[in-house]
Amino acid sequence: MKPPPMLGEAPIAATIISSPTQISNPMKSMDSIVSLCKRRGFLFQSSEIYGGVQGLWDYGPLGVELKRNLKDAWWRDMIAGHNELVSPAGAPSSFEMVGLDCTILMHPQVWKNSGHYDLFHDFMVDCRESKKRYRHDQVRGRFVEYRETKIFVTTLAEIEHEADEVRRRGMKYFKLRPKNADDLTVGDESITLDKLDSHDEVLGPDAKSLGTLTEPREFNLMFKTTLGALGGEEDTTFLRPETAQGIFVNFKNVLDSSRVKLPFGIGQVGKSFRNEITPRNFTFRSREFEQMEIEFFCHPSQSQAWYGYWRDRRLAWYKSLGLSDEALIMREHHTEELAHYSVGTADIEYAFPFLPEGEYGELEGIAHRGDFDLRSHMEGKLDPSTSPMTVELNENGKPKYRGSGKDLSYRDEESNEKFVPHVIEPSAGADRGVLAFLCEAFTEDEAPDEKGKMQTRTVMKLHPRLAPIKAAVFPLVKKDGMPEVAQEIYGSLKEHFNVFYDAKGAVGRRYRRQDEAGTPYCITVDGESLTDKTVTIRDRDTLEQTRVKIDEIVEVVRERVNE
Ligand code: GAP
């Protein structure tokens, strides 16, 4: 039997192999990320064979594992793995955490008292020429000037192409030839439509003439649907636009059935639906998406301290799974953005590559909601502009929307105090989380091929807990008993982790495919394995290879994956 080749990335006898070289300009392009997601089966457009539907996305074989791993990590770290007997670092005290799984369709009164029926709006503009509809704060553009005429040219192009697209549209509008390109001045600043005072000089994203966009109008984002066969107005309800309300309306059920005591949190993971006017930026703004929400109930006097705790804890969670410090910010809402009953709201934001440099997109909001939700479901929708809050009345002086009339207050057994708890709400998006982790993981570096020649390598540096496949098992060649040993190792690992067996093609190419899938470890059975019962385990990020005993491989993978 020939010894295995020792060049480049072939398996080795002891340790260490040439490490990857960072590419000098590590700019992540959204186009490359989207194309990798489709090519490798992370994400597909929904109903693609019929031309797709905007704002709806399907997760492919790798994507579904990644998203499940993210949701499982959240559930384990926030709910199932929470130790209620100790007070975690930074927390005012110990606390309890439980879970729920509520329906997507709920009683229509829920959405009236939550405020979504009246207030869940976005501003949209219509184009009288193209008959298209856009979200007012999402259409970007720049001022363009040609011979004393200044107009505002908009586009929906991705940010990396935005300036070029504005120039192209400006040239077309002024009927300029390429040789006159220097006569056109395009402004340096890209701004959104909502920053303008008038639409008179605006060239809409799909229009040929100026001033075709209407004034902004409100548009409710909830999807309407009908319960039952009769279809009267009273049978109309909505697909939930957030999972939170299922938690509020079950507050009493949870208290009565699980005997939790304040402070405690209820978590839920599930689908939410919003009829976004201009869904865009890949999965960032989708019409169907999943949320991971906690409603944390506490005594009003403690709510500020708990708000601080959850802000810090949630930010640390994203970092623990690999989002970098530089790409994350915590944006505290200004006091004028806050409802008066709230002591604070902060967004955890990420520097998604589709945003201009220095801009960030929301990953998760942490809101102090006071007692607004529980009291609204108890007494009828509260008017958040009143202080102390009172029930909103209709023109006859009656409650605009009737509450449930159920007592959603809490009695402290020790002090006998009865009060409506305050709520801290850390509300995360699973799809936005997946997108942020995909963007963070996407890396292009240079690594040696089997002949030792440096080649550009695309590698998804996903945290091992999130990686769709934890390890891949290869026989170096398809003979000499190597496949049989590799299959046995694969079988023993598969009992514990999602692992992948691959015997096809050159081993270097198999490594590359796993790098793109984000697989942190590749295990290779080579000639030595047959004699000394060891295999190589290759680290995706450092390319380091070490030899480990076959009968220790499950433990080695478990330790490295940290599950
Ligand atoms: N219960 C509070 C609530 O729903 P939100 O800020 O509207 O708050 C929470 O949503 C999170 O849900 C966001 O931070 C985001 O991660 C995710 N999310 C909201 N709308 C989304 C959309 N159209 N597509 C994908 N994720 C979305």
Automatic annotation (TrEMBL):
<dbReference type="Pfam" id="PF00587">
    <property type="entry name" value="tRNA-synt_2b"/>
</dbReference>
<feature type="binding site">
    <location>
        <begin position="362"/>
        <end position="363"/>
    </location>
    <ligand>
        <name>ATP</name>
    </ligand>
</feature>
<feature type="binding site">
    <location>
        <position position="242"/>
    </location>
    <ligand>
        <name>substrate</name>
    </ligand>
</feature>
<comment type="similarity">
    <text>Belongs to the class-II aminoacyl-tRNA synthetase family.</text>
</comment>
<feature type="region of interest" description="Disordered">
    <location>
        <begin position="380"/>
        <end position="408"/>
    </location>
</feature>
<dbReference type="InterPro" id="IPR036621">
    <property type="entry name" value="Anticodon-bd_dom_sf"/>
</dbReference>
<dbReference type="InterPro" id="IPR022961">
    <property type="entry name" value="Gly_tRNA_ligase_bac"/>
</dbReference>
<comment type="subunit">
    <text>Homodimer.</text>
</comment>
<feature type="binding site">
    <location>
        <begin position="425"/>
        <end position="429"/>
    </location>
    <ligand>
        <name>substrate</name>
    </ligand>
</feature>
<keyword id="KW-0963">Cytoplasm</keyword>
<comment type="function">
    <text>Catalyzes the attachment of glycine to tRNA(Gly).</text>
</comment>
<feature type="binding site">
    <location>
        <begin position="274"/>
        <end position="276"/>
    </location>
    <ligand>
        <name>ATP</name>
    </ligand>
</feature>
<feature type="domain" description="Aminoacyl-transfer RNA synthetases class-II family profile">
    <location>
        <begin position="201"/>
        <end position="468"/>
    </location>
</feature>
<feature type="binding site">
    <location>
        <begin position="284"/>
        <end position="289"/>
    </location>
    <ligand>
        <name>ATP</name>
    </ligand>
</feature>
<dbReference type="InterPro" id="IPR027031">
    <property type="entry name" value="Gly-tRNA_synthase/POLG2"/>
</dbReference>
<dbReference type="InterPro" id="IPR033731">
    <property type="entry name" value="GlyRS-like_core"/>
</dbReference>
<dbReference type="InterPro" id="IPR004154">
    <property type="entry name" value="Anticodon-bd"/>
</dbReference>
<keyword id="KW-0067">ATP-binding</keyword>
<feature type="binding site">
    <location>
        <position position="135"/>
    </location>
    <ligand>
        <name>substrate</name>
    </ligand>
</feature>
<dbReference type="Pfam" id="PF03129">
    <property type="entry name" value="HGTP_anticodon"/>
</dbReference>
<keyword id="KW-0648">Protein biosynthesis</keyword>
<dbReference type="InterPro" id="IPR002314">
    <property type="entry name" value="aa-tRNA-synt_IIb"/>
</dbReference>
<keyword id="KW-0436">Ligase</keyword>
<keyword id="KW-0547">Nucleotide-binding</keyword>
<dbReference type="InterPro" id="IPR002315">
    <property type="entry name" value="tRNA-synt_gly"/>
</dbReference>
<dbReference type="InterPro" id="IPR006195">
    <property type="entry name" value="aa-tRNA-synth_II"/>
</dbReference>
<protein>
    <recommendedName>
        <fullName>Glycine--tRNA ligase</fullName>
        <ecNumber>6.1.1.14</ecNumber>
    </recommendedName>
</protein>
<feature type="binding site">
    <location>
        <begin position="429"/>
        <end position="432"/>
    </location>
    <ligand>
        <name>ATP</name>
    </ligand>
</feature>
<feature type="binding site">
    <location>
        <begin position="289"/>
        <end position="293"/>
    </location>
    <ligand>
        <name>substrate</name>
    </ligand>
</feature>
<keyword id="KW-0030">Aminoacyl-tRNA synthetase</keyword>
<dbReference type="InterPro" id="IPR045864">
    <property type="entry name" value="aa-tRNA-synth_II/BPL/LPL"/>
</dbReference>
